[in-house]
Amino acid sequence: MRYSGLRILAEGVTGNRGWRPVWRDPEPKPAYDIVIIGGGGHGLATAFYLAREHGLTNVAVLEKGYLGGGNVGRNTTIVRANYFLPGNSEFYSHSLKLWEGLEAELNYNVMHSQRGLINLFHSDGQRDAFVRRGNAMAIQGDDAILLDRDGVRRHLPYLDFDNPRFPVHGGLLHPRGGTARHDAVAWGYARGADARGVDLIQNCEVTGIDIENGRVTGVRTTRGAIMAKKVGIVVAGRSGQVAAMAGMRLPIESHILQAFVTEGLKPMIDHVVSFGMGHFYISQSDKGGLVFGGDLDFYASYAARGNLPMKEHVMEAAMTLMPAIGKAKVLRSWGGIMDMTPDGSPIIDRSPVEGLYLNCGWCYGGFKAVPGSGYAFAHLLALDRPHETAARFRLDRFRTGRGLMDEEGTGSQHNLH
Length: 417
Known about the structure:
Elements: H1 5-13, E1 31-37, H2 41-54, E2 59-62, E3 78-79, H3 88-100, H4 102-106, E4 117-121, H5 124-140, E5 145-148, H6 149-155, E6 170-174, E7 178-179, H7 182-195, E8 199-201, E9 206-212, E10 215-221, E11 224-233, H8 239-244, E12 253-264, E13 272-275, E14 280-284, E15 289-300, H9 308-321, E16 330-340, E17 347-350, E18 356-360, H10 370-383, H11 397-400
């Protein structure tokens, strides 16, 4: 289907009855070469790159609800590559490069806006830490500019620079960071995968994983049994539950991360701003709403909603940093189920079951990782070896203790990452 301003006007005056679906709604086949459990951003990206990069199209994506109805539609849409440790740094750098070419590759507007991201610091110790991080980013080939107090003021004049507890001393500017439209990312990858022959099967919940002699043979679903040579689990906060169907206990805890959006306001915030001392981050959407979030709720849960004390904490952080938004009305809030690993870094690896593969543990990094994750997981599924950018995302690092990537230095407590 071709799109144009004239077509939108024509459909608007005729009741929007002429639009056609942009992907098929197929019945599941009895067998596939590869089955991907999870129709979110990571699963759809994996399917797209399996077809695009490896020519594998006898692939099904199984989603228990509707495509893009999970975490890919429940986040604050931030895209960045400002990681510090080897393993994470090169992965997110690669993912950002994929973001920069994504709209051309998908021929779809995902509203990727490289408006710049500024991480604020409030002490000498934080300044030193951000100098190190900025140098590491530059060595990796990404962009980082250290701003002093006046430099931050030129970019973000609306902050409370003289807060007695958290005075703003400066910030680290990541110019290529920004935001994208989360549901458009899912739709773009879905359309691209479908156009290449991948079956996207909605309302198809996986209820079991069949294993014979240590090898996966298929899955059981609410729409019948489906045989498969390989199965990839890409289900974010449900990773532990789905892996349990194969007899595995993953080093994952599922926690709730809340996000909020206000009424539409005139343009005010033209960057993504991160307030580390209050664990608060904010940007302004294309509709004018302020989109912001903070800490996890700090208890394990599968409920896609949050508690009132954390709402209060996030609002307090907002007022500490930006008192000017105090009268803005919050329209809605939501919760995403976060799959948290002990070191805060993800897992893309083969499982102990032959033919069963894992993509999980994205913690706070899930949305920004969508292109890189799909690219690397497709490489693993197609070739049975890790892509170089994801080579350190091994499952066995939690058993051996070798290769742990603790970006924040907070130890092995899941909810601190």
